[in-house]
Amino acid sequence: MNKFINGLMRLRRGPWELVATIFIVFGVFMLMQPFVMWAFTYSFIVTLVGTVMFIIVSHFPE
Amino acid sequence: MSDKTINRVAKATPRRLARKVRGLSDRAITWIFVGPTIFLLLAINIFPLIWTINLSFTNFKANRINRAVDYIGLRNYERILTDGDIWLSMQATAHFLFWTIFFQVLIGFTLAWLINRKFKGNDIWTTIIVLPMMLSPAVVGNFWTFLYQPQIGLFNYVVAFFTGADPSSFEMLGSVDLAPWSIVIVDTWMWTPFVMLICLAGLRSIPDYIYEAAEVDRASKLRQFFTITIPMVMPFLMLAVLFRGIENFKMFDLVVQLTGGGPGSTTELASINLKREAFEKWRTGYSSAFAIILFVTVFGLASIYVKALNKVKER
Question: Does B113 touch chain A (CB under 8 A)?
């Protein structure tokens, strides 16, 4: 856990990509889930933030 | 010494003549070759994408070109993301996507594994299995419509034969519960061979000596399967899932031919809904925003997937 937080603080690719991936997966789940409407409403912004974050952080050093 | 002579000759050559002899630089040649491709890429992919993003912030209607176009900010996105019909179409897409990929990977890999065992008539079976993939989706949709007919369709009779139910007691395309499964069955029938071919390529790329070494170490067949076959086929399998996932996310022709999105809107996938908004209701700005939402979703998922694929390959 410490390694993960250190990686985030030092702007390392691995942990930041993990954060972006969680955003994207969560966003897509929110888009397609059949349970609550509000999750569908906010799904796009979550996916968009994740996708843009993924593009940016994939240029961070390893 | 000879190098110096070359330099002296080069210096002595008049500039105009030297330019003629030298011709184009490497950089110029590179641009001549790459330029047309970049131009086409910009014209066919990048420009329409930027234009669609631009349209998604307007109330533009393609059937009323002369009407003034107003920028309405994020209102299209707001409407889409609070629209119950769009939400339902996304759920239908999720159902279709999940089950088609699940069945195609399961059956495709099993078929590849069986075909990979050398037996008599192996090639003939491969050709027969691959046939559905070569047909046009419109043709497949059309003849499966006949197969699903409750009165004369073969599908109902086969199901009736195994279950003992009356063939005309259920209607695959007309029932709200069965219609989503009917499109899953047809897509699985059509595209399982594609997954099978990719898996077969993966299975055939595993060298025999790895299995021989495992035999020497007295590894059981099951252990060989889980520690050699599955890990080595995994990149191929992931590639197949990526291709099928992207393709099925924008599935249109087959479903339109089979159910047309019905009954009601139970099989109205996102792409069918998008087409209705764009070319039946002519809400171009709205449908552009919808297209951007789908694009971001597929792009995000594909980014993660390509990353995972590279990691698996590195292993």
Answer: no
